[in-house]
Design brief:
The structure is a homodimer of 127-residue chains. By secondary structure, the first copy, chain A, is mainly alpha-helical. Chain A has 6 helices and 3 strands. Chain A has 2 domains: 10-71, Winged helix-like DNA-binding domain superfamily/Winged helix DNA-binding domain (Arc Repressor Mutant, subunit A), CATH 1.10.10; 75-122, Penicillinase repressor fold (Orthogonal Bundle). Chain A has a 3-stranded antiparallel beta sheet with strand order 1-3-2. The longest helix of chain A has 17 residues, at 75-91. Chain A is elongated, with a radius of gyration of 19 Å. The interface between A and B is large, with 37 and 37 residues.
Chain lengths: 127, 127
Amino acid sequence: MEKNIPSISESEWEIMNVLWDKAPQTANDIILSLQESTDWKPKTIRTLLDRLVQKDVVGVNKDLRIYTFYPLYTQEKCQRAETESFIKRIYGGTLKSMLVQFIQEDTLSEDDINELRFILNKKPKKQ
Amino acid sequence: MEKNIPSISESEWEIMNVLWDKAPQTANDIILSLQESTDWKPKTIRTLLDRLVQKDVVGVNKDLRIYTFYPLYTQEKCQRAETESFIKRIYGGTLKSMLVQFIQEDTLSEDDINELRFILNKKPKKQ
DNA sequence: AGTATAGTATTACATACGTAATCAAATAAA
DNA sequence: TTTATTTGATTACGTATGTAATACTATACT
């Protein structure tokens, strides 16, 4: 029984990325990390973090006075969930249809394409 | 000078898909289409349509008493814009990183992979 | 002509999200 | 010990979104 991953908003993803990079972290750790990449006020970051906790996407350890936070789902799981709903919404359901478009519209460089060929070929055949 | 495409919400995408399928259409046409795939009330659909008009993603022809609506951007353009921001947010910017994950995690069937190989190989080499 | 009906326009209301500020409690510093 | 500082909890407020309902207006029918 896979439980549905709650939806993570754009800003919340920034927080998650910091936590996936390293966990657990205190709110202050996270604030310091994000101060480099965003111009959010500490209070803002704290709010986002609290919301992730409410959504049960982030867990809190309250044993010490200064709490520490950690992700409750792996990055891969969240990426996959987002991607599936994204592709369904935007491309009518198939990753392939998206790829076809990207390949055909020259979004991918020749190098990218070669690398993809390589990855696809490396992938072992099932039997 | 490319103008930025306004962001289209999840529900609004449903409307857009109907309009991309065929345009122009009256509000009623759209309502009928969506009544098959959703359980939205006509008024709801009308609201979504109006919002798309406000956002300048959909145009209206008011020459006749019963308006007709049509998309102001191609589906490809909107897909691409969404996809770029999506990939940046979720995968740190590269389509490739997403693909690698999907290929490695067996999300794609063997058939899909073969089809991708085919598409990639069909793609003419630039020079 | 009067009324039902179909479109359009306006208004509504709860929840999510972006972006914080204020309030309270506990610890650290003076 | 009194006070400043840090951390956590609660509250705020505008815009977007989901999901409509109500009000107005112009045809269509009786």
